[in-house]
TrEMBL record, chains A, B:
CDD domains: NAD_bind_m-THF_DH_Cyclohyd (cd01080). Homodimer. It comes from the Bacteria. GO terms for cellular component: cytosol. It catalyses: (6R)-5,10-methylene-5,6,7,8-tetrahydrofolate + NADP(+) = (6R)-5,10-methenyltetrahydrofolate + NADPH; (6R)-5,10-methenyltetrahydrofolate + H2O = (6R)-10-formyltetrahydrofolate + H(+). NADP(+) binds at G164, R165, S166, A230. This is Bifunctional protein FolD. Pathway: One-carbon metabolism; tetrahydrofolate interconversion. It comes from Spiroplasma corruscae.
Amino acid sequence: MSAKIIDGKLLSQKLNSHLKISIAQNKGVRAPKLTILQIGNNPASNKYIKNKLNSCKSVGIDAEVLKFDNNIKVNELEKTILSLNKDKNVDGILVQLPLPSHIDEKFINNLIDVTKDADGFNPQTLGNVLLDNTQIYPATPNGIVKLLESENINLVGSNVTIVGRSNIVGKPLATMLINREATVTICNKKTKNLAKVCKRADILISAAGSSKLITRKFVHKNMTVIDVGANFVNGIYCGDVDFEKVSKIVKYITPVPGGVGPMTIACLIENVYKLYKNYYHKNNSK
Amino acid sequence: MSAKIIDGKLLSQKLNSHLKISIAQNKGVRAPKLTILQIGNNPASNKYIKNKLNSCKSVGIDAEVLKFDNNIKVNELEKTILSLNKDKNVDGILVQLPLPSHIDEKFINNLIDVTKDADGFNPQTLGNVLLDNTQIYPATPNGIVKLLESENINLVGSNVTIVGRSNIVGKPLATMLINREATVTICNKKTKNLAKVCKRADILISAAGSSKLITRKFVHKNMTVIDVGANFVNGIYCGDVDFEKVSKIVKYITPVPGGVGPMTIACLIENVYKLYKNYYHKNNSK
């Protein structure tokens, strides 16, 4: 038996098509706009930004990249963000990660106004995610939830194990699944008997950033496996899961590439459109 | 064998003594001040508020209660909170729960300025708790962490099971323990085989609000049991744990009353002092 592949590329294309129609139908005097801040010239960042720009273009979102030298002073970056917060022609702001070591990620994410928080990394956004009181979610967790929903995979009362406790995937995803009445276990590097803890799950989500971490010992035949890993091994892009072997055992699985990755971008640009709509709504109701 | 009782009353008294000294030593032109808003006349709320006022008084925090009729309009309450947000003589604001049904709790908690958020229920505070980037925590989860720390109970790599997924206990507590590298499982009413899931834990925390939910079947001899329940059964105040039987089996246990309850108030008034200190720090550095 082989697992059913949950095709994130296909689902993201469907979402983008819907988004394109919504944007065309609800366009005001200008298109939605995303501003991406890039510090330095990280090759992986270049690639991710290119993908974001292409996706924006394909659905009718204006996007621009402001590039800064790797040595930019924090207060210069701060000034730029505060000015973008006030710019009525910008709906979403995103600072491409990773940042150079002299710039504190939390400080930067806190500067971005919550009404322009495209990535969903602002503390207020994350608090509202925990409270289940928002339309804006960090893109990767939101993409994962949409992948599960696309196959009608039950969450209520299900056992979900998440490997990885990052601020942008593990923790917000945990709160989103808790809000959907799943029984959620969050593992980290110190977890004892990781394989055993994982094997208990109905849904296993690995966001550890460690290739071939999830082997046959971690899974069973009724399991759904979501692979959030984005690793490069000998120049080859792969996830956390030993796909070849695990996909022969489990019920559902996402591939890398073509699983969570494209969903992350689809959810990011959906955030930009939601921020745009909120902006227009607010300005029309005043 | 009988469990060691973790005495929340004693620990809260110690914390209050330290706080009293800190306040006396760091007092500016005025004492720290907490304003409590009470809507209606709920008898349990009256009791909780009285305890909060007494604790404030004992450590040198000024506290006042603003009482409102049960039928108060939301915009009146809003006006009061916005005015308190600007009041330079108020450091902490707290709206006593529960609220009458016509008032949305999330809306109200969102109104309280994050710099005056005594309860730690504001979304920005909760997001910062998730990000491990704050000094202010919701009082009950913070009290639980302090109870565990007081007995040097290991969290790193430990299996913690939390029963209950509320916005004020379960979810923020989960993020705090995840940040301490525990492997955390959050259960809810839909969890399958609850007893079995609980029995796997090194530390079991019940915040379900259901008396005698946690029985002998849920525990083992090396377990620490933290009882967050605050239930009234036939007029008797009790927790979620069948204390008589469970305390004969496990290693550590908190009683009700005298466990988490007094720690919650101690952590609340500590928040007020921290908000006061931040306020003074800000105003001296400007």
